[in-house]
């Protein structure tokens, strides 16, 4: 990153202190993974932490009608601001970095700007989007979907968790009034531009162009996100016939689980053939007895790819394979390609000219805002394991610091138009 040469920003202290604060919150000691679900006690602790970090910096803390938290430096009602941040919740047994890395680097960026004497000309916001993973109520990016109207308030309130608790009840238990939940045009209007920094959820940055692992190249520590792949979820219902596992002759069986095996295998082989990815990660087996031949299996297929064409081709092929078994395939959700804002991506490329460009197969709040028309973009920090949504998820501490440096340079450009080169001697 030549544009950052000469910029020495002492960000490590505040970043490391915040990271150490968050580390134990919601951590399962048995696995080392995180269970940070929306509107739980753990979520409350994370929200209190966010509020305290805003208070410590004199940022104005506001909550919107979905419960997303915003810490503002400057008044976004005078002119829309630049927003950085991400989310603090996790998937079941998730990693430490997916989400929190974006929030912690955002606060560290505020500290770096202040250490450098940079006063933004436009308001700067730090955001914690609520319930990004959808781990509790099943809808990913719930916080950003609710405020943009992509998720209707009534539907959101009636979503239930595994224990049958609705989102409305969860709000009440958290001391909130679910009647206030809903679309929030005012909160969205305050966001002039959004840059979400996130841990990479694959291994592209950890691999050198020759395919070998390279974790030392600082130019590959941070990438610029260009787009989010099209993705969707399909439900496949596979029929069978319940019968005794011990007394039914093999030729007489109609075993729905055999059909499931075919669906899973065909999802893999068509994904390989077409260059997409397809996953059966959740199944429901009826009756679900060890000694009973399954009479019905429901499988959920998640498919993604670089183009909408390859995703549809994959699902069509799996679906026609499944229909030969008498199974039916139903679309449950579909998100077309999300392309990040060209002007904003152009600014990021000008500030970080050596940073690789990266498309991603994962959904993010930045994608929801981009689809709603808010100029949005992303930065990704190298992940040596390439693993995400697992305790093995990783970003090395020096790469996290590179992330803060990159975000600081981007925010300086967006908030002041100043060349970060001129911020020498910032410590
Ligand atoms: Zn995330």
Explain how this protein is built.
- Strand 1 and strand 2 (69-73) form a beta hairpin.
- Strands 1, 2, 3, 4, 5, 6, 13, 14 and 15 form a 9-stranded mixed sheet that branches. Strands 9-11-7-12 form a 4-stranded antiparallel sheet, with helices on one face. It has a two-stranded antiparallel sheet with strand order 8-10.
- It has helices spanning 12-22, 41-57, 100-115, 142-148, 153-158, 167-173, 185-189, 256-274, 308-323, 342-351, 365-372, 397-416, and strands spanning 60-63, 69-73, 81-87, 124-129, 191-199, 222-228, 231-239, 243-244, 277-286, 292-293, 296-304, 328-335, 338-339, 357-360, 376-381.
- It starts with 11 loop residues before the first helix and ends in an 11-residue tail after the last helix.
- It has 2 domains: 2-229 and 337-422, Zn peptidases (Aminopeptidase); 231-335, 2-Layer Sandwich (Alpha-Beta Plaits).
- Helix 3 packs across helix 12.
- With 427 residues, the protein is α/β, with parallel strands linked by helices.
- Mean pLDDT is 93; it is low at 1-8 and 423-427.
- The structure holds zinc ion.
- Zinc ion binds at residues 87, 98-99, 132, 198, 364.
């Amino acid at each position: 990153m030549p544009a950052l040469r000469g910029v020495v920003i002492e960000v490590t202290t505040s970043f490391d202190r915040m990271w150490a604060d968050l580390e134990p919150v919601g951590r399962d000691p048995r696995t080392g993974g995180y269970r940070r679900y929306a509107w739980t006690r753990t979520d409350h602790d994370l929200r209190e932490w966010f509020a305290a970090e805003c208070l410590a910096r004199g940022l104005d803390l506001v909550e919107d009608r979905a419960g997303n938290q915003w810490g503002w430096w400057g008044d976004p009602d005078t002119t829309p601001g630049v927003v950085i941040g991400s989310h603090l919740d996790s998937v079941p047994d998730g990693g430490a970095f997916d989400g929190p890395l974006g929030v912690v680097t955002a606060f560290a960026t505020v500290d770096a700007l202040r250490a450098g004497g940079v006063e933004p000309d436009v308001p700067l916001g730090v955001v914690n989007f609520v319930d990004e993973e959808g781990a509790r109520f099943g809808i990913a990016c719930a916080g950003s979907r609710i405020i943009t109207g992509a998720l209707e308030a009534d539907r959101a309130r009636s979503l239930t968790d595994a224990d049958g608790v609705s989102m409305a009840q969860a709000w009440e238990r958290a001391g909130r009034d679910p009647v206030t939940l809903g679309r929030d045009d005012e909160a969205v209007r305050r966001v002039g531009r959004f840059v979400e920094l996130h841990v990479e959820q694959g291994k592209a940055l950890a691999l050198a162009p020759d395919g070998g692992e390279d974790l030392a190249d600082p130019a590959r520590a941070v990438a610029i996100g260009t787009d989010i792949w099209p993705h969707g979820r399909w439900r496949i219902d596979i029929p069978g016939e319940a019968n005794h596992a011990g007394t039914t002759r093999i030729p007489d069986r109609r075993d729905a689980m055999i059909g499931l095996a075919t669906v899973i295998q065909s999802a893999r082989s068509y994904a390989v053939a077409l260059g997409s990815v397809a996953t059966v990660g959740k199944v429901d087996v009826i009756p679900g007895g060890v000694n009973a031949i399954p009479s019905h299996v429901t499988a959920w297929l998640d498919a993604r790819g670089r183009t909408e064409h390859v995703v549809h081709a994959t699902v069509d092929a799996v679906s026609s394979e499944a229909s030969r078994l008498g199974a039916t395939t139903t679309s449950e959700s579909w998100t077309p390609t999300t392309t990040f804002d060209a002007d904003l991506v152009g600014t990021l490329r000008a500030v970080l000219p050596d940073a690789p460009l990266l498309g991603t197969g994962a959904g993010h709040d930045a994608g929801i805002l981009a689809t709603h028309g808010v100029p949005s973009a992303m930065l990704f920090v190298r992940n040596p394991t390439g693993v995400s949504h697992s305790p093995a998820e990783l970003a090395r501490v020096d790469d996290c610091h590179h992330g803060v440096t990159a975000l600081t340079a981007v925010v300086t450009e967006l908030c002041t138009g100043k060349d970060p080169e001129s911020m020498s001697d910032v410590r």
